[in-house]
């Protein structure tokens, strides 16, 4: 960003070009030695040694309070992790991202989701063009459209106001909007029905449109590329559904709008340029919920709340950009993830929101984290020397407690956990929020401290059952606490994870912004769909398993 621009360091615009493997860096080796020295030191000991630990190991930013004291780290661990980040060029890479340098090396693109929430007077230049005015122009058009739908001014083909808005998109063109609309449901316009169709399985669209009046239904076709097979198939099916009820091609104009970078394909689908909302190739799909991809959210919660969400994103961006690494929330979250994953061996991360409105947050983070950092080579093509993205999963509390928490407490695998909670409920009910939050606090406490055999015996537990009842504890977790789940807080929370994922990607020296791995399956599916349609049953040239499955499917399909 063009304020006090730090000097460019060309060697670091691209991931470390000719760096030795990560695990050979002295800063990494220092952590290996430190880990060995720490042995299996228990969280009980960490807290006993430092009674102020819970007050010290925290940072606060953008309305979020981040307690990381229940991690198996000392001040020295943290200092060594920050040192590693310095050696990996995190500050330079971060500044290059904010500046708009093409840090997505394999796709030769800038990575500028941070420009989506930049104030109007900021200058961020990509290929000689300041992109901020374009961003604000699109936001203004979105706001105008959202208000017209919300007020009933926008009429459908038969003159009825729009009561149902259905987003058709997949991946980043679905998960962000769904999560956002769920999270901010209490801010949503009453009487407006929202639907989401992502799966190419026709049941998704059939269920989303069941019983709806096409004259009151508007579809947002959301696809950055406007080439995604799943989305285009569903968009054509939605078009057919609308036309079957409305019986007039001209109806498309008032019932379909698009969000895309691909104006040509949008026009070819039959959507007017005036009804297309743009985004840019420097916005990655999984980083796009605050672009026009979030149009359905803006319609739902209104432009003011949407802008409040952007301010939350922005506040976290500022914190990430300006705060020293050792007190920087996304940096710490990312570095602790590296520690838990690469040093303690936690292969998965459980995301546990204690707020029912965040029930889609784990699914959102799955794409953000795993599509970004599920990589096996560095950005310069060498095999990585350590494991990369953790597997992200989770469910809201307290549901998860009655399902998989048993494994978290007593299973043989170490699972890192992120607890997320709020001091106020969106629906205060006499004391019930305290019950919810008591569970959050209790679970993180139980994971950290467990219950010893001595404590069980002192309670008079039958000796024969002591082994079964022991919880060894020493299981790391983070806790994020905010006042309430507002649009602002949600923006800050998403930006926190975006920058944490970035931090981890920089340490591993991978390109967190491409996704070549998803291409192979797409290409194969295209070939197979042609073969399935060919009823002449010509020879198949797949492996014997795939050939047999396809033949069986073809046979059963006919029966
Ligand atoms: O799954 C691959 C992917 O390219 C994601 O990165 C993206 O979010 C999704 O497909 C949808 O892409 P589009 O918005 O171009 O339809």
From TrEMBL:
One of its GO terms (molecular function) is glucose-6-phosphate isomerase activity. Pathway: Carbohydrate degradation; glycolysis; D-glyceraldehyde 3-phosphate and glycerone phosphate from D-glucose: step 2/4; Carbohydrate biosynthesis; gluconeogenesis. Belongs to the GPI family. The lineage of its organism: Bacteria, Pseudomonadati, Pseudomonadota, Betaproteobacteria, Burkholderiales. This is Glucose-6-phosphate isomerase. The gene is pgi. Residues 1-21, 535-559 are annotated as: Disordered. It catalyses: alpha-D-glucose 6-phosphate = beta-D-fructose 6-phosphate. HAMAP family: G6P_isomerase. Its main location: cytoplasm. The keyword Transferase does not apply. Keywords: Cytoplasm, Gluconeogenesis, Glycolysis, Isomerase. It is found in: Cytoplasm. Pfam families: PGI. The active site is at residues 371, 402, 522. It comes from the Bacteria. One of its GO terms (biological process) is gluconeogenesis. It is an enzyme of class 5 (isomerase). NCBIfam families: PRK00179.1. Its EC number is 5.3.1.9. Catalyzes the reversible isomerization of glucose-6-phosphate to fructose-6-phosphate.
């Amino acid at each position: 960003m063009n304020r006090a621009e730090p000097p460019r360091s060309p060697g670091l615009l691209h991931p470390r070009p000719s760096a030795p493997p990560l695990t050979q860096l002295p800063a990494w080796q220092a952590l290996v030695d430190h880990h060995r020295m720490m042995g299996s030191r228990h969280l009980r000991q960490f807290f006993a040694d430092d009674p102020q630990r819970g007050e010290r190991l925290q940072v606060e930013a953008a309305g979020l309070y981040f307690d990381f004291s229940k991690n198996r780290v000392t001040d020295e661990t943290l200092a060594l992790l920050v040192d590693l980040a310095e050696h990996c060029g995190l500050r330079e890479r971060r500044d290059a991202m904010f500046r708009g340098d093409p840090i997505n090396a394999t796709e030769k693109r800038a990575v500028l989701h941070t420009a989506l929430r930049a104030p109007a007077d900021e200058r961020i230049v990509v290929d000689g063009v300041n992109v901020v005015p374009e961003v604000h122009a699109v936001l203004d058009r979105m706001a105008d459209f959202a208000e017209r739908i919300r007020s009933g001014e926008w009429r459908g083909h038969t003159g009825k106001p729009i009561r149902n808005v259905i987003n058709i998109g997949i991946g980043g063109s679905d998960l962000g909007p769904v999560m956002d609309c769920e999270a901010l449901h209490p801010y949503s316009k009453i009487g407006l029905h929202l639907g989401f169709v992502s799966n190419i399985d026709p049941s998704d669209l059939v269920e989303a449109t069941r019983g709806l009046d096409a004259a009151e239904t508007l579809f947002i076709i959301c696809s950055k590329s406007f080439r995604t097979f799943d989305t285009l198939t569903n968009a054509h099916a939605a078009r057919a559904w609308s036309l079957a009820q409305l019986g007039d091609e001209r109806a498309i104009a008032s019932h379909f709008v698009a969000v895309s970078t691909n104006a040509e394909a949008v026009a070819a689908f039959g959507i007017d340029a005036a009804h297309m909302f743009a985004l840019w190739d420097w916005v990655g799909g999984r980083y796009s919920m605050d672009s026009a991809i979030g149009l359905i959210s803006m319609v739902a919660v209104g432009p003011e709340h949407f802008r409040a969400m952007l301010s939350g994103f922005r506040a976290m961006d500022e914190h990430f950009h300006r705060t020293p690494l050792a007190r920087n929330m996304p940096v710490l979250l990312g570095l602790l993830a590296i520690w838990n994953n690469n040093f303690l061996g936690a292969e998965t991360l459980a995301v546990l929101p204690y707020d029912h409105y965040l029930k889609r947050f784990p699914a959102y983070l799955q794409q953000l984290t795993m599509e970004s950092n599920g990589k096996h080579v560095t950005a310069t093509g060498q095999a990585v020397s350590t494991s990369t993205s953790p597997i992200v999963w989770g469910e809201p509390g307290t549901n998860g407690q009655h399902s998989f928490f048993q494994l978290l407490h007593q299973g043989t695998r170490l699972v890192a956990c992120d607890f997320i909670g709020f001091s106020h409920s969106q629906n205060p009910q006499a004391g019930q929020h305290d019950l919810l939050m008591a569970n959050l606090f209790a679970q993180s406490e139980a994971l950290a401290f467990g219950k010893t055999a001595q404590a069980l015996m002192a309670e008079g537990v039958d000796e024969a059952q002591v082994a079964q009842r022991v919880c060894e504890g020493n299981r790391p977790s983070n806790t994020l606490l905010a006042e309430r789940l507002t649009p602002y807080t949600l923006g800050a929370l998403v930006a926190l994870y975006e920058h944490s994922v970035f931090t981890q990607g920089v340490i591993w020296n991978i390109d967190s912004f491409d996704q070549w791995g998803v291409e192979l399956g797409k290409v194969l599916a295209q070939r197979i769909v042609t073969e399935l349609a060919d009823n002449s049953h010509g020879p198949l040239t797949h492996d014997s398993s795939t050939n047999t499955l396809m033949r069986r499917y073809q046979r059963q399909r006919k029966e």
